[in-house]
Amino acid sequence: MRKFVILGGGYGGLAMIQGLTNSHLPPDIELVLVDRMPFQGIKTEYYALAAGTASDFDLRIQFPNHGQLTKRYGEVTSIDLENKLVHMDQDEPIEYDYLVIALGCTDRYHGIPGAEQYTNSIQTFSSTRQTYQRLNDIKPYGRIHIIGGGLSGVETAAEVRESRPDLNITILDRGSRVLSAFPSTVSAYVEQWFRDHDVLTRSHISVSRVEEGTVYNGDEAIYTDATVWTGGIQPVKVVQDLNVPKDPGGRVVINEYSQIPDYPEVYVIGDCASIPFAPSAQAAGAQAEQVAEVIHALWRGETPKLHKIRLKGTLGSLGSKAGFGLMGKTSVKGRVPRLLKSGVLWLSRRHFG
Questions:
Q1: Over 90: is that where the pLDDT of 352 sits?
Q2: Using an 8 Å Cβ cutoff, are 168 and 197 in contact?
Q3: What is the value of pTM for the model shown?
Q4: At what angle do helices 11-22 and 281-299 cross, to 10 degrees?
Q5: What is the largest CA-CA distance in the chain?
Q6: Which residue from 48, 324, 338 is spatially nearest to 179, judged by alpha carbons?
Q7: Residues near 328 by Cβ (< 8 Å), separated by ≥ 6?
Q8: Radius of gyration over alpha carbons of the chain, in Å?
């Protein structure tokens, strides 16, 4: 049997399994899914779990069952590319003939002292649970600061406002406006929503250090009861430790087939791969589908035919009744994008579940 190991059961990993099993899977292939948890967490909705507007159980999707699929649960500690081994914490190493690295991302703290120790994360199910506990234990009129005014920071602020109307919420962003990757009209709409709902935004903030109860903007002390970090991401440490070429963001450089050039039996997808898209669930899933087609073609002894990956757009929510997004070059704002996002979530559950 040839062992095909998939590291990570997120959007990319599950799309990979579906792409491989939906077509004819050679009978001598054993798929092995490795994940720290026995279910996929819907990471695009972690902000709602942190705020308390969605439950832990609501954000789980069970992994699929298949006769040629084995599941291994545990923490990956390192990957030995030369000897084709995946090392596990408190478990035996896993040998592989083919490997897909789809381990996702973790917070990037940009070397800011105290940022990792004194801020709360929404990057993993476990850390998001802890963030929920911290935010919802704050007494009325407490102060919450969210560092980073991108999509995650905006959605977190809006959801916490819906969950805790009694709290003082501020977004601290280094740019001139929130959602700097979106058109200015979208930023203006979101800023107005924040003003209408008493969420403060502060621009041109340069966080110099973080201490317990205090965020420093240069020498200015900003006092807080809890701080949520949404100020940047990077590939997980296992990928950071790989001795292979990477781009300036730390993502692994891959060839046209998403392989590591010196290790063609290893594929990298999603947030860990240097692809021409911002990290997202949609990009990971689309890339994984293409990689599955590539692998099937190679197994048939054919030259893979590549299609251009086209993403459908980005949607964000402002609580349960408003939203925003970018569909191609068209900005959308208001009730419709919120309904669209709810529909995408429903389809995602149905597709993967």
A1: no
A2: no
A3: 0.93
A4: 30
A5: 65
A6: 324
A7: 313
A8: 21
**Is the torsion defined by CA of 87, 93, 98, 103 positive or negative?**
negative
3-state helix, strand, coil in the chain (%, to 5): 30, 30, 40
Distance CA 338, CA 350 (A): 19
114-118: Cβ within 8 A, 24+ apart: 114/209, 114/210, 114/211, 115/147, 115/207, 115/209, 115/210, 115/229, 115/231, 117/210, 118/210, 118/211, 118/212, 118/227
Question: Looking at residue 128, which CATH number applies to its domain?
Answer: 3.50.50.60
d(CA 71, CA 9): 10
- State residue 180 phi and psi, 5-degree precision: -65, -20
The boundaries of the domain holding residue 287 are: 2-36+74-106+233-299
How confident is the model over 42-54, as pLDDT tens digits? 999 999 999 999 9
Give a yes or no: residue 12 inside a domain. Answer: yes
Examine residue 308 and state whether it is found in any structural domain, yes or no. Answer: no
* Type of residue found at 147: I
- Give the up-direction half-sphere exposure of residue 250: CA atoms within 13 A in the CB hemisphere: 19
Domains in the chain, number: 2
Q: Rounded distance, CA 268 to CA 259, Å?
A: 6
Q: Is the pLDDT of residue 344 over 90?
A: no
pLDDT band at 350 (very low <50, low <70, confident <90, very high): low
